[in-house]
Specification:
The chain is mainly α. The chain has one domain. The protein is 77% helix and 0% strand. The longest helix has 24 residues. The termini are close together.
Length: 137
């Protein structure tokens, strides 16, 4: 089970890094997707886009330097983001996923399913990390 936890942890770290890099490398497209929701002004959109990048970078750093804190942070971040995209969907403001890369353009349902899977994986990894906390990965 320890190897499964390590694989999940590694996948989460790579996935978050991939999504972060895509948003950071094409920040204008990311900002455009945020602006399209109609919830934010241009100035708030710019601030929010950098805030999201900061939040994601903290998650990546925590996963590297403190696995337990990183896994918990990632779990909470994914839950909050899933609630946010669900709010956008239920208020008819969700158009397509703006995460970038291969995820760009996902429908709400596809994005929701991916997020639920990531939440489950984060939870499983956190449980196994707690179980094997006295051992090194």
């Amino acid at each position: 089970m320890k190897i499964i936890s390590f694989i999940i942890y590694s996948f989460l770290l790579l996935f978050l890094s991939y999504v972060f890099a895509n948003k950071a490398l094409d920040i204008s497209a990311f900002q455009s997707n945020i602006f399209k929701t109609g919830l934010y002004s241009v100035s708030i959109t710019k601030i929010l886009s950098y805030f999201v990048l900061l939040v994601e970078s903290i998650g990546i750093i925590l996963l590297i330097v403190n696995k337990k804190a990183g896994l918990l942070y990632t779990l909470i971040m994914l839950i909050i983001f899933t609630i946010y995209i669900s709010f956008l969907n239920f208020t008819s403001r969700y158009e397509v996923c703006g995460c970038g890369g291969v995820l760009n353009g996902l429908s709400y349902m596809a994005h929701f399913i991916i997020n639920i899977c990531l939440i489950i994986l984060s939870f499983i990894s956190l449980i196994y990390y707690n179980k094997f906390s006295n051992e090194k990965y």
